[in-house]
Amino acid sequence: MKQGESAHHDAVELAVSVPPLMLEARELAASFINGQHGRRRYGWGDEFWQFKPFVNGVDRLADIDWRRSAKSDQTFVRQTEWRVPQALSLWVDPSETMRLSGPPTKSHRAMVLALALGICAEQAGEKISEIGQPVQSGFGSQHLQRIHDAFLKQTPSEYADTMNVVFERKSKALLFSDFLGDLSVVEHFLALAKASSVRGVLVQILTPQEMTFRFDGAALFSSALGQITFHTNQAAALRQDYLTRLADRRRRLERLAAAAGWDIYLHQLDHPPLEAMLALYRYLTRRGNA
After folding, report:
1. What is the sign, positive or negative, of the torsion defined by CA atoms of 189, 192, 195, 199?
2. Domain segments of the chain: what residues?
3. Are strands 87-92 and 127-130 parallel, antiparallel or unpaired?
4. Whose CA is closest to 200, among 113, 111, 89?
5. Angle of helix 20-30 relative to helix 106-123, nearest 10 degrees?
6. Residue 51 pairs with which residues in a beta bridge?
7. What is the pTM of this model?
8. How far apart are CA 236 and CA 256, in angstroms?
9. Contacts with 196 (C-beta within 8 Å, 6 or more apart), sequence order
10. Cβ(107)–Cβ(268) under 8 Å?
11. DSSP assignment, residue 184?
12. Cβ–Cβ under 8 Å, residues 142 and 149
């Protein structure tokens, strides 16, 4: 076999060996790290930087960026003090409501985003863990593969149950869910996080239909596992009440997050995943959160 053919064969074998979910996450992470829409303003870990004026006696001469300094009358240094945390914990809600709609489903999008952010953190040398599964925190791509496998092995349930989680102190966490279930589960989780000085983001993923309730005429509504059903001949008449209750739930989530020092981010399923990547990265790396 010729060298070119051998390389192509190896590439094909590698592509086949990578699970589709992980492959999609890697592609998203690569788009985020390498692309950034042609700008070099944002990176991950030590690659994140911005310029500030050189201060004699404070900054090191070795940190001076001579290329940037040559463009003005000032001397500038790169600062890389905004970093992702040393430990990043991930959780994807196993509720059946996350598996509805699609493609993609809310669950699929959540796992892709979680793994892509995990890949970025892993490349920056950060420790990664998966909340709620027997996968200990660790480093490297093999550990990330174990988290991928744990995501796929989650036992689905109508709604998520309360979890007793042991956090690494002063770490960060990302919770991916539609948050349409019992919010006492979220409240309990955030209380544990606050006790360990853990900061993070509640990532709410909703479908366009869940955001707007564009049903009309006769409709049969049921819970994820069909345990609760409701039939109506005038679905449109329910729209305003639904939107009011959805807004009330959102405000309660915001209060719970704020009380724990967390942020909340809403991602609509028909929006690009890269949009969510950039937003979540900014949450994780902004001042006061690092």
Report:
1. negative
2. 49-79, 87-285
3. parallel
4. 89
5. 60
6. 78
7. 0.76
8. 31
9. 166, 167, 168, 169, 170, 171
10. no
11. H
12. no
DSSP character at residue 138 = B
Torsion of CA 139, 140, 143, 145, to 10 degrees: 150
82: left (phi over 0), alpha (psi -120 to 50) or beta: beta
Of 176, 152, 121, 257, the C-alpha closest to 129 is 121
- Give dist(CA 84, CA 44) in Å, integer: 7
Q: What is the pLDDT of residue 46?
A: 44
Residues whose CB is less than 8 angstroms from the CB of residue 8 and which lie 6 or more positions away in sequence, other chains included: none
pLDDT, tens only, 191-248: 999 999 999 999 999 999 999 988 888 776 766 666 777 787 777 888 899 899 999 9
CATH architecture of the domain 87-285 equals 3-Layer(aba) Sandwich (3.40)
**pLDDT band at 149; cut points 50, 70, 90:** confident
Three-state secondary-structure class, residue 64: strand
Across 40-47, average pLDDT? 43
Residues 6+ apart with CB under 8 A from 65: 51, 76, 77, 78
| Tokens (6 digits) for 160 | 């998520």
For tokens 């589709």, name the residue: 20
